[in-house]
Amino acid sequence: MKNMNQGTIVQVIGPVVDIKFTEELPDIYNAVLIRSQDQRSEESAGGLHITLEAMQHLGNDTVRCVALSSTDGLKRGMVA
């Protein structure tokens, strides 16, 4: 399996999410996964599990992605 590269969410506008990567950018049409634990409740088995699709390289190490499900709960600074 390919090594997972991490990025940081810099903008969320509806289903569109911009993510800045410090290393290699994901290829266009590749999946970008966001997995985080729900910080409101330690008992919650949920948390965020969102899959995005890389759609455009914007420059400055930033990729524009489209979410394949709801972006509720996403915010700037989260790790993707």
What does this 3D model show about the protein?
- By secondary structure, this protein is mostly beta strands.
- It has one domain: Thrombin, subunit H (Beta Barrel), CATH 2.40.10.
- Helix content is 0%, strand content 46%.
- The protein has strands at residues 7-13, 16-21, 31-36, 48-59, 62-67.
- Strands 1-2-5-4-3 form a five-stranded antiparallel beta sheet, with no helix packed on it.
- Strand 4 (48-59) and strand 5 form a beta hairpin.
- It is globular, with a radius of gyration of 12 Å.
- The chain starts with 6 loop residues before the first strand and ends in a 13-residue tail after the last strand.
Mean pLDDT value: 88
Give the helix/strand class: mainly beta
CATH class term:
Mainly Beta
CATH topology: Thrombin, subunit H
Total beta strands: 5
Q: What is the helical fraction, as a range of percent?
A: under 10%
Could you give the order of strands across the largest sheet? Answer: 1-2-5-4-3
The profile of the biggest β sheet is:
5 strands, antiparallel
Which sequence of SSEs, written as H and E, runs from N to C?
EEEEE
Strand content: over 45%
How do the strands and helices of this protein lay out in sequence?
Blueprint: E1 7-13, E2 16-21, E3 31-36, E4 48-59, E5 62-67
Antiparallel strand pairs: 1-2, 2-5, 3-4, 4-5
Keywords:
80 residues, mainly beta, Thrombin, subunit H, 5-stranded antiparallel sheet, 5 strands, 0% helix
